[in-house]
Specification:
This protein is 40% helix and 15% strand. The chain folds into two domains: 31-61 and 343-447, Aspartate Aminotransferase, domain 1; 67-341, Aspartate Aminotransferase, domain 2. With 449 residues, it is of the alpha/beta class. It starts with a helix and ends with a helix. It contains 16 helices and 15 strands. The protein has a seven-stranded mixed beta sheet, sandwiched between helices. Strands 1-2-3-13 form a four-stranded mixed beta sheet. Strands 11-12-15-14 form a four-stranded antiparallel beta sheet, with helices on one face. Helix 9 (200-212) packs parallel to helix 10 and helix 14 runs parallel beside helix 16. The structure holds pyridoxal-5'-phosphate. The site of pyridoxal-5'-phosphate has 12 residues, from helix 6.
């Protein structure tokens, strides 16, 4: 049996894939990726693919970066692991925390690490609740999030999630979570049209806080640029209004930049795009470009100081074995150094603009509903070409698989093809990617409807 087929068979024999109907995977077959370099992935048959997903929104600096691998190896040889429990620490964790404090917006300063996005969402939610207690507001426990947002899979993070399909199988979830409608000018949940809408989507937060009683609300958590069901930039008035509402009612603002962060939107953090000054910022995915599973939560000094006290009762009693892993922190430091040295954020802004312009060409297809996003974080909304309805899930999957067959990796999320290529992308890469997408949609219109 050829290597690819053998690996595919073994994969289906032993691996249970995340978020996957394994029966469906059995019918499509597993994609065995064995090598990666720059923008490209290679399968076990030697076929190459443009990684327009940058791993899973992770790979900012591209694959196969010798500098990061060397930094991890050197760190591993010097000190493979020490936990941050019991007053221990390590050099890369110290250096990375200082770096994050320097490069993140506002006066964010104190860092706790995790191994995944869900880890740091969980930290932020627990921190927000205990912080309010520490300030004497025991009743401020409610967390407001947005419908359609994705924040992770652990029970707290899942409770913040606004995606019914992910929530429903695990209900009842953690009490005290509320959801408001998102900002989405393409499918306005209020049936309004910008700019005559008075930003109802932002007002929804104030209405919800007043309905709950401000003295019961701990925090509002959201992504600056949502991406779960297509990448939709909020209207310009949205974030200033949200910031003002949070300040007015003394509600913590948690910016989930787990997916947005580290350059892909054309600024290092999406908070910079909209002048957001969060109390708590969440980072993961591209923090170490996927070379190591690492995440971070960074908070303002006032939050950290509220936990100081004479005993452990005042402390934030949350800890996981691998927080602040030295090899992961070394990978993140080198990753950030590359992003800075190679001016990759400028590249994401410039090439991202070109990517957005070229993607507009897809609107010639009846199946393409819209092209949205910012920088290199982009999505192409899909619709039924002849009927007033969304593209069926099975067709969305076929389109994604067709793109793969033609040499491009993207994701089908809700009604959109979502892309987040490495921020090393060039204009030539854009041309190649858009050409494949055009051929994919042409094929889809011909064959699937
Ligand atoms: C915005 C956002 N928050 C949280 C998460 C959860 O991250 P993880 O899958 O690493 O737990 C994700 C994952 O896609 C995400 O996009």
């Amino acid at each position: 049996m050829a290597n690819q087929e053998h690996l595919q068979a073994q994969d289906l024999e032993y691996n249970w894939h995340p978020f996957t109907q394994m029966q469906e995977q059995k019918s499509w077959g597993s994609k065995v990726i064995v090598e990666a370099k720059g923008m490209m992935l290679k399968d076990a048959n030697g076929r190459e693919y443009i990684d327009a997903m940058g791993g899973l929104f992770t790979t900012a600096v591209g694959h196969g970066r010798r500098e990061i691998i060397d930094a991890m190896r050197q760190q591993g040889e010097k000190l493979d692991f020490v936990s941050l429990f019991d007053f221990f620490t390590n050099e890369p964790a110290i250096e990375l925390s200082k770096k994050l404090a320097d490069i993140t917006p506002g006066d964010l300063q104190y860092v706790q690490y995790g191994c995944s996005g869900s880890d740091v969402v969980e930290i932020a939610l627990k921190m927000a609740r205990q912080y309010q207690k520490r300030r004497g507001f025991s009743n401020r426990y409610k967390i407001i999030a947005r419908i359609s947002s994705f924040h992770g899979v652990s029970m707290g993070a899942l409770s913040a999630n606004g995606v019914t399909a992910f929530r429903e199988p695990f209900e009842p979830l953690v009490p005290g979570f509320r959801h408001i409608a998102p900002a989405n000018c393409y499918h306005c949940p209020f049936g309004r049209t910008y700019p005559d809408c008075d930003i109802d989507c932002a007002r929804a937060l104030e209405k919800q806080i007043l309905f709950e009683g401000p003295e019961t609300v701990a925090a509002f958590i959201t992504e600056p640029v949502p991406s779960a069901g297509g990448v939709f930039e909020p209207p310009p008035e949205y974030w200033p209004a949200i910031q003002e509402i949070c300040r007015k009612y003394d509600v913590l603002l948690i910016a989930d930049e787990i997916l947005n962060g580290f350059g892909k939107v054309g600024t290092l953090f999406a908070c910079e795009l909209y002048n957001i000054d969060p109390d708590i910022l969440l980072l993961a995915k591209a923090i170490a470009s996927g070379y190591f599973p690492l995440s971070a939560v960074i908070v303002k000094p006032g939050i950290y100081e509220a936990f100081l006290g004479p005993t452990n009762r005042e402390a934030f009693l949350h800890g996981q074995t691998f927080q602040g892993h030295p090899v992961g922190c070394a990978a993140a430091l080198k990753n950030i150094e590359i992003i800075e040295d190679e001016k990759l954020v400028d590249n994401a802004r410039e090439v991202g603009k070109y990517f957005g312009e070229q993607l507009q060409g897809l609107l010639e297809f009846k199946i393409a509903a819209n092209v949205t996003g910012v920088g290199l974080l982009r999505s192409v909304g899909l619709k039924h070409p002849t009927e007033e309805r969304e593209v069926p899930y099975e067709i969305g999957v076929k389109i994604r698989e067709k793109a793969y067959e033609l040499g491009l990796i993207c994701r089908f999320q809700v009604n959109s093809l979502v892309m987040s290529p490495p921020i090393i992308m060039t204009r030539e890469d854009v041309d190649k990617a858009v050409d494949i997408l055009k051929r994919t949609l042409a094929e889809a219109e011909k064959s699937y409807f």
